[in-house]
Write a structure and sequence with these properties.
about 40% helix, binds calcium ion
Length: about 220
Amino acid sequence: MAGGTILLVEDEKNLRKLIKTYLEREMINVMEAADGREALELWDTDKYDLVILDVMLPEYDGWTVCKRIRRDSYVPIIMLTARGEEEDKLFGFDLGVDDYVTKPFSVKELVARVKALLKRSNHQLLTEVIEVGDLKIDKKMHQAFLDGKPIDLTPKEYDLLLVFLHNQNQALTREIILDNVWGYDYYGDLRTVDTHVKRLMKKLKRMGKQIITVRGLGYRFEVTN
Ligand code: CA
């Protein structure tokens, strides 16, 4: 059973209802929005495990909604694009979109991708050891290792590393990082993030090069393989 609650944003009513029916068969709750404004209203009032977002929407388009969501969350996002919008994908990856489905698509395939993403994010939350290359983080021990040797990180640097490892290859805004490491109620400067990222990169040595600056947005922990 997949479980979870999804925000489904699609203005074509028939398609929306069809997707909803398929998802509900998997025991997934679906909240529907028919335009960008409604999507953001729902986003602000509830918590979701995943967002399915059409690009072409009335009111605000999918990119605007995506940007706004990424300001305060790294919830998995699947974009529904039309043929010919493929060039936009690069832009979308910078915004931290997790997956794309090009219309027309099979709803079964979309559901399969939803389930895979939900499973991945659950797994990442539950798993106790994360390994990326020569970098290892043991959550039970609250300790990071490089080449098997403990890295001396402050609690904030450790939390920051964890946010990067949980969100590999996703662009994270400074706001998201700040919220996730320092908490929503932290009243601070976004430059705090830059200072800590710089320090973390230094401590991670060669692995630190995998933290890439995303211009005008924030950072991305890049993992290739
Ligand atoms: Ca549409």
